[in-house]
């Protein structure tokens, strides 16, 4: 009841929205009940508008609750003095207000956003998401944003011009570059879908074993698109999904690369091997150099998580453990850099065969 830490609105009427102690007397209970319910209902609608319209909602909230002063959203109102006065008819008052003022909230936690110039532009071009609207910072008037605004109007997507602080809040600290889109979430594919659509002579599947850094996942998706990979496999838990940060880090490539979420990576590798795939895994303890194996076959390449590398049960499912020689002082490369090196070696070998 009351303020929920994961939402930007009140789920049910909190104690701070109830009338003062003087309003809870028996001789004026009916009158105070109706007045309090009306104030609560008006204020609650102000909260919903605040989530939808930003600073304009703050004005509506203050207009709906004249007794409040200018304060940040979520702070306690002056009506909090009635917090300890609930007894007798006050308890019944709270129950009735809770029944009358339940409603379906529209909060930032239910919204999926894509931000960044390239990410929004590619999402508009790919048309694989349903767009609610695109928000543009009022302060920016450059040609790049003007092209995106024109693209939105051509595709029938609503455009809103908002203060930069509103975009900062919705992007949750991400670098949005003055543009943000409210869209549906990324649609994941099934593993069977990935291996039913081959883009080249041989399959090339990328498997990410628990990568948690969204910037690394985005960079690998960008390389996967450039290398014409057939898809990427990620685990459902303890790994980064396709978030707004991933979409921006991939420069919009996440809109084009099929991504399959699986419950168990080692089980997914077993299914791929049953379909005739050879499984390679990049590991610093690998006994073969990455450029000394043959990629001219249907293959899946596994990349381990940052720091801990491959899980033991995943390593046991791999046919070959490969490594990149390190000639300097550090022991390993960033996983997204290593993925680029290995993927382009596979492309080089396959291109020579085609020639």
Order of helices and strands: HHHEHEHEHEHEHEHEHEEEHEH
The total of helices stands at 12
CATH class of the largest domain: Alpha Beta
Q: What is the second-level CATH architecture of the largest domain?
A: 3-Layer(aba) Sandwich
The structure class reads alpha/beta
CATH superfamily of the largest domain: SPOUT methyltransferase, trefoil knot domain
CATH topology of the largest domain: Alpha/beta knot
Give the total of beta strands: 11
State the helical fraction.
25-40%
Instruction: List the strand order in the largest sheet.
Output: 7-6-5-10-8-11-9
Descriptive overview:
The protein has 355 residues and is an alpha/beta fold. Helices cover 38% and strands 15% of the residues. It contains twelve helices and eleven strands. Helix 1 packs antiparallel against helix 2 (55-64), helix 4 (117-126) runs parallel beside helix 5 and helix 8 (214-226) runs parallel beside helix 12 (335-354). It starts with 28 loop residues before the first helix and ends with a helix.
